[in-house]
Amino acid sequence: MERLxxxxxxxxxxxxxxxxxxxxAGTGLTTARVHLLWALQHAGPSTQQALAQLCDVTxxxxxxxxxxxxxxxxxxxxxHPTDRRAVLVELTDAATETMTRMQxxxxxxxxxxxxxxxxxxxxxxxxxxxxVAAHLETLVAAAAAESEDTP
Length: 151
Known about the structure:
By secondary structure, the chain is mostly helical. The chain is built from six helices and two strands. β1 and β2 (87-91) form a beta hairpin. 11% of the residues are buried. The mean pLDDT is 92.
C-alpha cells in the first residue's frame, strides 16, 4: 500500500524531530529553547513579550525558557535603553557562536536535501512545499479561530 502524502510529511517531521534530539543530546537545549535562540538570532535583542509572540508561547512559558537559557549561559537580560520597566534578552557570545554554527549546519542540510532532488525538479518541489506550507498555515489559523469562537 502506498503511503499518503500527509504520511510522508509526518515522516519528515518525525525525522527532523529525532535529528534535533540527537543533535542537542547532552547540551541542555530543548526544541523550545532552540526555537527561542533562533528567534533571538534573527530578531536581535528583544523583550520577553516580543519573544513570546515570536515563539507563539505564553508570557509564563517565555519566562521559564529565558530563565533556563540564562542559567545555562545562552542568554542574558539587559536594561532596555528607553523603557526603564523593560529588559531585553540577548544572546551571549557563546550562544552567538552556537547559533552561527547551527546556521551553517542548517545551510549544509538544506543543500544536502536539495541535492537529493534532481536539478530539473527542484523548482517544482520548492513551489509545491511552499504551497503546502501556506495552505497548512491557513488551515491551522482557521481551526484556531474556530476553536476561539466555540464556547
